[in-house]
Amino acid sequence: MIRSARVYLMLLVVVLLSSCGWAVRPGETLLDARDDFTQRLRWHDCNGAGRYLASEVQNAFLESCETDEDLHFVHVEPQSLDFSDDQRQADSVTLLEYYRLPSVVVKKYRLRQQWAYRQGEGMKQGIWQITSPFPELP
């Protein structure tokens, strides 16, 4: 009886210690955030895309996005992503293909953005936010 209790205790310690190593590094979650942002941008989901912008640039983006109903994205393609050494900041380049009504001519624009990782409180996972303002597309 005592021997089986020790075995169960050892198994419990192994499980608890192994779960400590499963914490996600910030750099691993940026790809999902960037892809979700670009798809929300493509589908003109202003509020959804706006969640990824830091508060200091968010309002300007939302105002521009909600009033520019003639802007339509045809294709959004992530091209590069460069992390800082500590993986808490990154620069991304995304190719945007779009047109603005009444024109149907598709234009291309390379969107350069700076992302920053905001640490969550306590045990909560942090989030990635865009810190650079969204440009006015030509």
In brief, what are we looking at here?
The chain contains 4 helices and 4 strands; from the N terminus they run H-H-H-H-E-E-E-E. The chain has helices at 2-19, 26-42, 46-50, 55-67; strands at 71-83, 89-100, 107-118, 127-130.
Explain what you see:
β1 and β2 (89-100) form a beta hairpin. This protein has 4 helices and 4 strands, in the order ααααββββ. It is 38% helix and 30% strand. The chain starts with a helix and ends in an 8-residue tail after the last strand. It is elongated, with a radius of gyration of 21 Å. With 138 residues, the protein is α+β, with helices and mostly antiparallel strands. Strands 1-2-3-4 form a 4-stranded antiparallel sheet.
